[in-house]
């Protein structure tokens, strides 16, 4: 009877160990860094006032960014991990939804570069839409976003946003 109990105990321990590992996401430094932005921020977008706020949603599995632009528009971007990578969908005031992917956090821990994957709700690949985002973490209370917009085939414009965390 002791042998049977030992076997059942060992199998139960194995099942619990394997089950716990299945739900544990792999290390994702870029995701952890993005989560550090939770809160409210104020700053400028090309010299005009702008605001951004971050909130963890969906039981902490996604980060919602709400960005108020100088022209009174508001955009939503959702970031979430995809294994060791980080992906985002940007719900733009241009009524399209570009998706981008970052391969990780820079070795100095200060930069995440998102590269264009695809876009929905556009008339064609040459239609205006966002094609890149760089998030620069200057320190715990200061960050910069550099959004790159495709205006026409082969023509892009990068807008700089500087933010300070509200206390």
Question: Which properties best describe this structure?
Answer:
ten-stranded antiparallel barrel; single chain; Lipocalin; 167 residues; alpha+beta; 55% strand
Quick gist of this model?
With 167 residues, this protein is an alpha+beta fold. Helices cover 17% and strands 55% of the residues. Strands 1-2-3-4-5-6-7-8-9-10 form a 10-stranded antiparallel barrel.
What does this protein structure show overall?
By secondary structure, this protein is of the alpha+beta class. The chain has one domain (about 30-165): Beta Barrel (Lipocalin). It has helices at about 1-25, 30-35, and strands at about 40-45, 50-55, 60-70, 75-80, 85-90, 95-105, 110-120, 130-140, 140-150, 155-165. It has a 10-stranded antiparallel barrel with strand order 1-2-3-4-5-6-7-8-9-10. The longest helix has 22 residues, at about 1-25. It starts with a helix and ends with a strand.
Please describe the topology of this protein.
Elements: H1 2-23, H2 29-35, E1 39-45, E2 48-57, E3 62-68, E4 74-82, E5 85-91, E6 97-105, E7 111-120, E8 129-139, E9 142-152, E10 155-165
Low-confidence stretches: 10-25
Any idea what the radius of gyration is? 21 Å
> How would you spell out the order of helices and strands?
HHEEEEEEEEEE
Helix content: 10-25%
Tell me, what's the shape? globular
Widest beta sheet: strand line-up: 1-2-3-4-5-6-7-8-9-10
Largest sheet: 10 strands, antiparallel, barrel
Instruction: Kindly state the number of beta strands.
Output: 10
Distance between the termini: 63 Å
Q: What count of domains describes the coordinates?
A: 1
CATH superfamily: Calycin beta-barrel core domain
The average pLDDT is: 88
Examine the coordinates and then state which fold CATH places here, giving the name of the CATH topology. Lipocalin
Strand content: over 45%
Which structural class fits the helix and strand makeup? alpha+beta
Number of helices: 2
Name of the CATH first level: Mainly Beta
What CATH architecture do you see? Beta Barrel
